[in-house]
Amino acid sequence: MNNEEIKKIVESFGATLYDVELVPMGEGGHIFRVSVQKEGGVDLDLCADINAVLSPYLDTNPPVKGKYYLEVGSPGIERSLKNIAHFEKSIGELVRMSLKDGTKLKGKLLGIKDGVVEIETQEGNQKVSFGDISKARTYFEWK
């Protein structure tokens, strides 16, 4: 699968490719999830337009052998942070992180520099090497 071509298709609509994910389904197929972001937000029309161009491309360049369903959408307000670019785009947001040693951190993402993530927690500012993070995602506090 060529993520660069998918990225070009998404960018042709003024959006950016956030993530591509292949999710197994119970009946043997997969969901091929393409998450996009756009200044001002992602709406249903944008997703449908990207889907209309991406679908024929994937017909000739399938992301997986066998049956799959294409899903184009926004990563949402609560989204996984899988790479440094995701962290950079989420500075100022609330995050939850699980570290490889089992430690859990929760707080405001202050920044990332030279592979070190800084988060403001109730216990004070914490610095964590990106390589020590096993899972991270943004979260929203409803007030």
Give an account of the 3D structure.
- With 143 residues, the protein is α+β, with helices and mostly antiparallel strands.
- It folds into two domains: 3-73, 2-Layer Sandwich (GMP Synthetase, Chain A, domain 3), CATH 3.30.300.70; 84-138, SH3 type barrels, CATH 2.30.30.100.
- It has helices at residues 3-11, 44-60, 84-89; strands spanning 16-24, 30-37, 68-73, 94-99, 104-113, 116-121, 124-129, 133-138.
- The strands form two sheets. A five-stranded antiparallel beta sheet has the order 7-6-5-4-8. It has a three-stranded mixed beta sheet with strand order 1-2-3.
- β1 and β2 (30-37) form a beta hairpin.
- The N and C termini lie far apart (42 Å).
Give the SSE order as H and E letters: HEEHEHEEEEE
Strand order of the largest sheet: 7-6-5-4-8
Given helix and strand content, the structural type is: alpha+beta
**DSSP strand (E) fraction?**
35-45%
